[in-house]
Amino acid sequence: MSGVLVISLARIGDIVQNFPAFSDLQRSAGDGGVYAIVQNDLQELAKMSPALDGVIGFDGNALLDTLRDRNGMSLDGLSCLKDIFEQIDQIKPDKVVNLTHTSFSSRFCSFVDTRQLFGRVDDRESGSCLHGFWSRYFFTLLESRSCNGFNLVDVQRDIAAGERGNFHKPNVPEQAVRYARNKLHIFDGRAKIAIAVGANHPLRHWSSGNWKGTIELLISKLGAGIVLLGTDSEAEISSEIARNSGGNCLNLCGQTDPVQLAGVIDECDIFVGNDSGSLHLAASLGKPCVGIYLAMASAWDTAPYSDGAITIEPDLPCHPCSESILCTDPKCHRSITPTAVAETCMNALNISRLDHHDGCIKKIAYFDARGKLNLKGEYKSDDSQRLLWRSLIELIFNPESTDLLTAPRVSAKFYDEFYAVIEPVKNELIELSKQTMNNLENDQHANSDQQMDSIAIQMPVLLSKYPQMRPILDLYMMDCLSGDTAKGLSQPERILAAMDTLLHRFHLIEQHLGNLMKTKSISQINHTLNAHVERAVQMSEVS
Amino acid sequence: MPSNNLEGNLKKIAASDERLADLLRQSYDPGYPEIRTAKSGEAIPVVNKKCLHSTYNPIAEAQKWMESCDLHANDNKTYVLGGIGFGYHVDELLKIIPPERLIIVEKDPGLAAAVLANRPVGFLPDKVRLLVGLSAVQSFERIIRYCASQNDEIFFLEHPASSSLYPDFYITLKGIVKAQWTTKRGGYKILLVSPLYGGSLPISYHVHDALNKLGHRCELLDNSVFYPGMQHLNDLTSNKNHQSRLDSGLTTLLAESVTARALEIKADLVLGMAQSPLTPEVLRELKKAGIQTAFWFIEDLQILEYWKALVPFVENFFAIQKGEYAEKLKENGCPFPNYLPLAANPDVHNPMQLTQEEESEFGGNVSHVGAGYHNRRNFFAGLLDLDFKIWGNDWDNPGTLKTALQREGERINTEDSTRIFNTTKINVNLHSSTYHDGINPFGDYLNPRTFEIAACGAFQLVDNRQYLSESFEVGDEIITFDSIQDCRERIVHYLANPHERIEIAGRARQRVLTMHTYEHRMLELLGVIAGRNPHWTPQGGGLPTAEEIIVGEKPGSALAGVMERFKDRGPLTLEDIASEIEKGEGELSRTEGMILLLNEFRRWGVEKGVL
Questions:
Q1: pTM passes above 0.80
Q2: pLDDT tops 70 at residue B37
Q3: Over the range A84-113, which residues count as b (16 or more CB within 10 Å of their CB) and which as e?
């Protein structure tokens, strides 16, 4: 038996977002089967994916307990790990995919005996390595999220399998269905709306006052029964909301395990919530859903992976903000109103049109011709950049199948400006490349850290000058640090190889954009783009 | 006759320790202690109205005490008994413990002499070691020397009546034994907080060295990096009110960093040096987090009074003054004030071979290293005709002293101070005073220079201080002066008698090495804390050695195989093992990989704040 092992040691939302990748892997795995390692308390949730043949539980809490004893020197943790590796040995995985981006998971999979590794892996020779182009792309997003046009699930799918097809809806166990029906029967005959008021970061929490207002509107306009979902930490807020709802709210916060949570969401007609694990669970179950994206949450990154799901974001230039910014005045919380959310819910239930609300940007998720999630609806100015990069990244990683016109609504003016920047960046990079060569020739004994330092000094200068080029420059940095071609190369050799790759990628981009500009005038491009957009919108409306 | 027994017993003791025998002979006083007879007929000593044994039946009491100790004959420990009393409990102990494994420590030489006078000759077998009249630190050092091997476990047995008689001594000794035993397992994790500048800063470095040398894991939170920032803030405004608010804001910030670091590294103890940025709020928070706090106030309690705001919140307060100051500390909310004098660091303060250039730059007949305090300015004006050099800062407007002032009053760093001490024939050490014209007649504590000059094996003349004779044999190891005239006469005398200078300085150095290093002070400081807090143990319960891990494994197991290479390394951390494995070459074994993985998980836990 030889199968695929997926490392998925993360939270509810991350595991659910891995479900489509499990399906892709199942198609390519053959008889060996697909197995996942997940946190112990999420094993039952993972088992809901029909694509998995087995789930290995990882008891992180028990391992932490062993580390608390004698500063970890009881070494009892070794037996916890030994048990897991014995289970892995039985699978004999032919391929390991690390979809958890922690140093622990990367080290973990480097000790699994296997032929192929995907994702972030620790290599004893070259340190932390990223196996596969898309893994490296994922890491560039950590620094250049404002340029990202891909949904995280699609990136995970590309890392895992490359080829994609239909993915399975999770199976909700009968017991969870019964639990949900039993709890929700009080709302029989009414529209049932699941609402999760929490999120994993305080800045992503829409205020309880907003939720109260939304719930009042949903009750008064739809006569809906509201089911409040979440963890213990949201129980107090939810119970206050429920108390003042005239018996129209059922508060299940802190009362459901992940599988029961799935059962309850599946029994409801629609799900509304912040960008959270529950939202992704609802999307995986194919529920109509409305996601609210505040602070650092971005619909482009993590929109519900479901056709027709609606995202609401604040129409603010600062959104999405950086993870590292501690905002003391989150305007985004005030920008989205209860009326906007309640009316969007009615649209999701096909009761009304998706109207514009001031202060909000609403988008609808759909799958493009390649099966990747895209967003249509209201666009912000920086969406042009995301859409262009969505095309360019496809071009870089998959040149044969690229069609630049998959970037609808990118204005011709933006193309022009972008094209004009490529040449000077390229020249500066060539100069940098020459300098690196000189440094190497003049200082043969410079160690790899020193070489990295010189790049680390140059790169921020380039990035501040050409911020729109961030993804490709970040990719270069990732290539310098690691990569499939890194093995056996010294650090300076790796830097030069990465420089070569970077210049090649720039050349590719320039060539394609140049051809486009040469063959068509700007007005023609605009015309073509607009036609494309119209076609796409029409198609989505038909579907 | 009791005195006959004394001589008989002393004769046996003199065979192995003549000095002790002499001390006991000199300490013997037939009227001390008062001796009563128990109802069962045995003689029992009474000191300060406290009976050191049962007045009914001291032997039965000793047997009961013995049972409570739960000792076993073959456990290969070294037993330290604190308090000899009249030895009834010693008789019981020796029925179980081999005499070569027993060390008896007695604080009171008079009492020790009395027991030898009153008990039969030979009641202490020859192999029993007796330590009398030493400080807790000295006793501990002797105990270590007497242990059969470095790894012997030392078990402290407390004679409760003796402990109640001299609680500070026995609690500290017990604490030192306990604290040093933890070093076999990595010791305590200590966060040492330095000030931003000033005289306490170099002492923080010495304390840091000393704690690590003792085998504890001491991390220095070196706040000197913030000194330029503090100066910058002071320069922003001349408004005193604003300056004070900025200072206070900076102190609050730095104090917060102490909490953050202490929690991050899971400190067992936060030790603040004088002027270090600790606030009552942070001290309260640390206490709440179960972290012991200590503060060493190495300044004059009378002159600087900020200690008053801190003492109610510091669990262990140490000062370089005692007596009336201890009372003041108690009045201000410090129930157990501790006296801990300054010291020297022999790794830094030591005799040096200097080059000719250095000799000509730093050398001279008479020098002083120190800041330009009021009393020094007055006093030193009387030495200018004696080839006198002044080194140090804060000598603005030096007037007639300008000719003696070196480097235009630049601050002198530790290394150069040591060079000056070493190359100067006579180092004049006048303790500072802001309000006396010359010598402070009420001066008590000793400044660090007293110990540092001595540690260098250099000769010094020091103004007479109340505590000086406790630390040095005045006249034999150190020479004092009481007036300018006295000082001048001694300078002339010792310049003319270099051999005397060398001999005196050599003895002073020896005294510092045996009693006044920062290692001695830190032994005492941790001893006090560990003794007063019986449940204070290193977080995580200490660290095992490779040998212990191997013993716990099945022979030939993979883990035992990995641990073989860590033998003789002492206590190990997971990080130690992982980093050694990472350095290795070749294929990783599964067990090695898992150790790396475990360490990675630990790092993650620390980063996320769950460990």
A1: no
A2: yes
A3: bbebbeebebbbbbbbbbbebbbbbbbbbe
* Exposed e or buried b per residue across B134-150, where buried means at least 16 C-beta atoms within 10 angstroms of its C-beta: bebbebbbebeebbeee
Give the Cα separation of A266 and A268 in Å (integer). 5
Distance CA B271, CA B252 (A): 17
User: Rg of the Cα trace of chain B?
Assistant: 28
* ipTM of the complex in this document: 0.76
Domain assignment present for residue B59? The answer is: yes
Best of B189, B594, B608 to substitute, by most chain A Cβ atoms within 10 angstroms, is B594
CATH fold of the domain at A4-160? Rossmann fold (3.40.50)
Number of domains forming the structure of chain B: 4
**Dihedral over Cα of A32, A34, A37, A41: its sign:** negative
Question: How far apart are the C-alpha atoms of B35 and B499, rounded to whole Å?
Answer: 51
**Chain B residues close to A124, C-beta within 8 Å:** 588
Start-to-end CA distance of chain A, whole Å, equals 42
Query: Is the pLDDT confidence value at A404 over 80?
Result: no
pLDDT score of B194: 97
> What is the C-alpha separation between B187 and B214, in angstroms, rounded?
9
Mutate to test the interface with B, among A9, A73, A86, A200 (most CBs of B within 10 A): A73
Helix axis angle, A383-397 to A470-481, nearest 10°? 40
Nearest CA-CA partner of B512 in B477, B543, B537, B547: B477
Beta strand B43-47 with B50-51 is antiparallel
Same domain, B384 and B505: yes
State which residues form the domain around B553.
543-608
Q: What is the pLDDT of residues A109-140, one digit of tens each?
A: 888 888 888 888 876 655 666 777 778 788 77
CATH of region A174-379: 3.40.50.2000
List b or e across A246-258, with b for residues whose CB sees 16 or more CB atoms inside 10 angstroms: eebbbbbbebbeb
Q: What pLDDT score was predicted for residue A144?
A: 75
Measured CA to CA, the distance from residue A420 to residue A479 in angstroms comes to: 25
Contact A81 B597 (CB under 8 A): yes
Could you tell me if B29 and B100 lie in one domain? yes
Residue A258's contacts (CB-CB under 8 Å, 6 or more residues apart) are A12, A41, A42, A44, A45, A281
Q: How far is residue A515 CA from its own chain's centroid?
A: 32
Q: How many helices (H) and strands (E) does chain B have?
A: 26, 18
Tokens 């000593």 belong to B45
To the nearest 10 degrees (0 to 180), the angle between helices B448-455 and B498-515 is 110
CB contact under 8 A, B598 and A124: no
Residues in chain B: 611
- Starting at the edge strand found earlier in the chain, the sheet holding A249-251 runs A249-251, A225-229, A192-196, A270-274, A289-292, A310-314, A360-367, A373-377
At B537, the amino acid letter reads T
Residue A384: φ, ψ to 5°: -55, -45
